[in-house]
Amino acid sequence: MGIVFLNVTRLELNRGIARGDERAAALERSNARLRLLDARLSSSERIQRLAEQRAMVLPAPGDVHYVRVRPRLDDRLAARRATPPGGALQTASLPAPATPPPSSGQAAPGPAASPTPAPPAGTGSPGLATAPSPGQG
Q1: 79-111: per-residue pLDDT in tens?
Q2: Using an 8 Å Cβ cutoff, are 113 and 93 in contact?
Q3: What's the rounded Cα separation, in Å, for the pair 86 and 125?
Q4: Closest alpha carbon to 123 in 85, 75, 88
Q5: N or C: which end of the chain has fewer CB within 10 A?
Q6: Cβ neighbour number for residue 83 with a 10 Å cutoff
């Protein structure tokens, strides 16, 4: 009885190991396909070709600058410029409504009202009052 139990246990372990090996082989094949796809998609020639198709150009060597971090100032500027979620959608200008062509006997309408321009960057959303942050004069 003990020998039969040991043989059954050993067979179950071998079956589990075989399943694990099959799974590992499938994962290795999948990883190899993903590595190949990654290599194709991240090739610099492909990226440059796509950038050229979108009218992007490489900057001149002197045009690239690093951002200087200013911890005491940057946090205040970020807080002042913060807008509620969807705030950018509220400040976007909408196209002017189409005006029908004048019919005979009616005076031509005046110039179409232009949409309200979005506020300059850093001024916050319209209608929201911004208070100076503590420690600011």
Answers
A1: 899 988 876 555 445 555 555 555 555 554 444
A2: no
A3: 10
A4: 88
A5: C
A6: 14
